[in-house]
Amino acid sequence: MITIALSKGRIFEETLPLLAAAGIKPLENPETSRKLVIGTNRHDVRLVIVRASDTPTYVQYGAAELGIAGKDVLLEHGGLGLYQPLDLNIAVCRMMVAVRQGFDYARAVQQGARLRVATKYILTARDHFAAKGVHVDLIKLYGSMELAPLLGLADAIVDLVSTGGTLRANNLQAVEHILPVSARLIVNQAALKLKRSAVQPIIEAFQKAVVERA
Ligand code: PRT
Ligand code: MG
Fold first, then answer.
1. Which of 58, 116, 131, 214 has its CA 20 to 30 Å from the CA of residue 192?
2. CA 194 to ligand 1 centroid distance, Å
């Protein structure tokens, strides 16, 4: 049995065509079903629906042979035990620094003030500001980072931006681009060796679908 871990929402939706290209069709829709283990048209392949940030953990420990996870999540996880053969170019967005409109970020940085930064992405944020030589106090949040500058919890946030609509709706503005983000196919390193005959064709089918779509 080959188990593929993925999160519902945008990752699941954008993965569906790639699964179809690999001849894999889920028997249920995770958006409407409460099932966490979803069978497919292939008796030897099943999907498991996990929290986006948990996907690398399931694959690292071999609970799933394959998974699909955002670069944001992979950077925080660290990638131990994972092979990352393919950028799927789905769930595309940018990791950015944002502040309240009117907050003079450039000046705060220039003055060497200690910035308070709220984020779910502690490691990525730490590396980014360290590389710039900016002193920050990082505040860990698990969601709705956009609220933090509005309530004075932080001067800035590090978060993902796709359309920019959420920033605009909350009177925030992006001030720095940290890195482009998209979802990757991840594979358990041991499974790639021990279950190669089952795993490799799925990787290749995804690869072909990504190239053909580009
Ligand atoms: O929801 P949960 O807490 O379980 O986890 P999650 O929010 O990380 O999962 P999910 O399903 O929302 O996102 C899964 C993956 O999609 C992320 O890990 C990213 O790699 C990718 N992705 C792509 C995004 C976005 N685009 C995105 N825009 N993840 C989140 N957002 C959020 C962002 O955090 C912000 O709140 O959408 C908001 C901004 O969107 P715009 O369009 O208003 O700019
Ligand atoms: Mg979410």
1. 214
2. 34
pLDDT tens digit string along 190-203? 999 999 999 999 99
Report the first-to-last Cα separation within the chain, whole angstroms. 30
Q: Which of 7, 87, 93 to mutate to test the pocket of ligand 1 (most atoms within 8 A of CB)?
A: 93
Considering only CA atoms, which of 66, 58, 56 is closest in space to residue 3?
Answer: 66
Number of domains comprising the chain = 2
Residue 75's Cβ-count burial label (10 Å; 0-12, 13-18, 19+) is middle
Does 110 share its domain with 122?
A: yes
Q: In which residue are the tokens 């409407």 written?
A: 32
The answer to whether the beta carbons of residues 18 and 210 sit under 8 Å apart is yes
Do 87 and 187 fall within a single domain? yes
Name the pTM for this structure: 0.96
pLDDT tens for residues 88-146?
Answer: 999 999 999 999 999 999 999 999 889 999 999 999 999 999 999 999 999 999 999 99
From ligand 2's centre to the CA of 120, what distance in Å? 11
Contact between 68 and 6 (Cβ < 8 Å): yes
